[in-house]
Amino acid sequence: MLPSFLSSPDELNQLADDIKSWAIEFGFAEARIVEPDLAQYKDEFNQWLNNQYHAGMDYLANHGDMRFYPEQLHPGTRRVISLRMHYLPQSVETVDRLKTKNKAYIARYALGRDYHKLIRKRLTQLAKKIEQRVGDHGYRAFVDSAPILERQIAEQAGMGWIGKNTLLLTPKAGSWFLLGEIFTNLPLPVDEPTQTRHCGSCTACLTQCPTDAFVEPWVLDAGKCISYLTIEHKGPIPVELRRKMGNRIFGCDDCQLVCPWTKFAKYTEEEDFQPRHNLDSADLVELFEWDEETFLKNTEGSPIRRTGYENWRRNIAVALGNAPTDHATTYALENALTHSSDLVKEHVIWALAQHKIPR
């Protein structure tokens, strides 16, 4: 039972304003409120699945219609509070690092602490702050951890629009931010939805994707996406895509980097998003020589753990095949032949061949 004062529109408006202020205090860049209408995306999503564009991410085909009906995921849901948080450190290079082929490029969201842990903690703090005001409000917090159409929710909340690269864009900050949600049974006033997708005739993200992963605007074939290949994919990386991966060993930011809205990016003030273990500037050879114990130690509390040690070395082997030929590179690859799994060895042999060293 909600407090009687929440039946007053003025009180609800004030609560919504307070929630947005509290969100800023907890480190979020913005919070908006929506009563989402997601059933309209059902046919489009199912067609995407039918085309096998989800590649090996079978979990995306699970949970039935739950992602289209928030009240099925969390009974009693009346509103969703959509929030975003900046993650790009100001000191971190982006385009220049991609051009330095003997250095590793790791998606900039993954350089520091796992965002799931950080954002989930802040969402819970915000939800409890609301609870102090109104009592139990039947909430549940999510951070990329359930069948949720979070970008569509954010778009309907008026936070921005979904770009042709399938990322949420906003003129306030480009796309260098992460999303989180609080499902609540509070009948809060909702914000105006985004009316227009402001990509216009621009196709930079589509034409400059290294692996041509975009089938058409707003449609991504995950099986060709470097983020999928280096994080989610199990097994060998398709040979025809290896040269196109360059020095990207975990994730890919290219479709953000070429987007004109990137110029409005805001930098993070969160210490937890600052790079750990020099991951923003590390040499490929240095990372390739980590043993499993070092990998586990240096990726503790990091999203990089998700790919696993074997796939980490697989990815770096490909990047070393794309690196300039020098003694350190070829020595590291040849040395790996004697103590690598069959999966890694396959990619090492390919990498050596790129340096004209047959095996």
Automatic annotation (TrEMBL):
Cofactor names: [4Fe-4S] cluster; cob(II)alamin
Ranges of residues in domain 4Fe-4S ferredoxin-type: 186-219
Keyword match tRNA processing: yes
CC cofactor note: Binds 2 [4Fe-4S] clusters per monomer.
Annotated catalytic residues: 144
Record's catalysed reaction(s): epoxyqueuosine(34) in tRNA + AH2 = queuosine(34) in tRNA + A + H2O
Involved pathway(s): tRNA modification; tRNA-queuosine biosynthesis
Gene Ontology MF: a single term: metal ion binding
GO biological-process terms attached to the record: tRNA queuosine(34) biosynthetic process
Keyword annotations from UniProtKB, A to Z: 4Fe-4S, Cobalamin, Cobalt, Cytoplasm, Iron, Iron-sulfur, Metal-binding, Oxidoreductase, Queuosine biosynthesis, tRNA processing
GO cellular component: cytoplasm
Subcellular compartments: Cytoplasm
Subunit-level organization: Monomer.
Function comment: Catalyzes the conversion of epoxyqueuosine (oQ) to queuosine (Q), which is a hypermodified base found in the wobble positions of tRNA(Asp), tRNA(Asn), tRNA(His) and tRNA(Tyr).
Protein name: Epoxyqueuosine reductase
Lineage: Bacteria, Pseudomonadati, Pseudomonadota, Gammaproteobacteria, Oceanospirillales
GN (gene name): queG
